[in-house]
Amino acid sequence: MGRLDGKVVLITGGAAGIGRGHVELFAKEGAKVIVTTRKKVDEGTALAENIKKQGGEAIFLRLDTTSEDDWKKVLGEVIKKYGKLNILVNNAGVSLAKTIEETSLDEWNWIMNINATGVFLGCKYGIEVMKKNGEPCSIVNISSIDAMVGEAELPAYCASKGAVRSFTKAIALSCAEAGYNIRVNSVHPGYIHTELTEKEAQDSGMTPAQYFEKVGKMHPIGHIGKPADIAYVSLFLASDESNWITGSEFVADGGYISR
């Protein structure tokens, strides 16, 4: 407890799945959490209220991560309320289980816009406010093991997450060379039980139970992960415990890519 005391944290896609796991854990560790999402407004609002009832501090702000205006507005509200931003977790993302032949250009642009452009905008405007606060800051970009390996049924997703992986390294160097006290790292989950993977099951023509059994066997540890499994990795990167780490990638995948 208390690993993020005094830190102001913004988490995108924070109302469900991996994002929700981050929100709940970071609040327990003392952070002032800004929960953001584009669609799940009711869920995000309820999550922030529940954290406050439990003695934590959280607010909800609607954010379309693909909108430059939204980023400017939301970060302006964060600075107005808290005076700073210490941690940004770019988590919002989507998936699409289709082969290259099945994927349309519109679908390609959709997934790249959310998964890659959204991270670009978050880093661009997050750095703008972080560099001014004089405190240690951290950006954690949620990528995927599919930034490192290919999957025949997820080409657009692989491309978008690969972009996040290399972009993270470039931004880490940019911040370091500019003398900003901002570290930037990426986290690469294996298969995690979320609404996103349930949608992948549907896209693949399977029930969630069938899909999770299938992909669980692909992980040497024997099962897929939980949102908290990823949030704990991000917690280390968000905290001052990792103050000599930047431009790195952290894999949490139950051994998936070790085969």
Quick overview of this protein structure:
This protein has helices spanning 17-28, 41-53, 68-82, 105-130, 155-178, 195-203, 208-216, 227-238; strands spanning 8-11, 32-37, 57-62, 87-90, 137-142, 182-189, 249-252.
Based on secondary structure, the structural category is alpha/beta
Helix percent reads: 40-55%
The CATH architecture category of the largest domain equals 3-Layer(aba) Sandwich
Overall number of strands: 7
CATH class of the largest domain: Alpha Beta
Strand arrangement, major sheet: 3-2-1-4-5-6-7
Unreliable segments of 5+ consecutive residues: none
Rg: 17 Å
Number of helices: 8
Q: Domains counted in the coordinates: how many?
A: 2
Biggest β-sheet strands, sense, barrel: 7 strands, parallel
Question: Tags for this entry?
Answer:
single chain, 259 residues, alpha/beta, Rossmann fold, 7-stranded parallel β-sheet, 46% helix
What does this structure look like?
This protein has 259 residues and is an alpha/beta fold. It folds into 2 domains: 8-190 and 226-249, Rossmann fold, CATH 3.40.50; 193-224, no CATH class. It is 46% helix and 15% strand. The protein is built from 8 helices and 7 strands, in the order E-H-E-H-E-H-E-H-E-H-E-H-H-H-E. It has helices at residues 17-28, 41-53, 68-82, 105-130, 155-178, 195-203, 208-216, 227-238, and strands spanning 8-11, 32-37, 57-62, 87-90, 137-142, 182-189, 249-252. A 7-stranded parallel β-sheet has the order 3-2-1-4-5-6-7, with helices on both faces. Helix 4 links the parallel strand 4 and strand 5. The N and C termini lie far apart (35 Å). The model has no long low-confidence stretch (mean pLDDT 96).
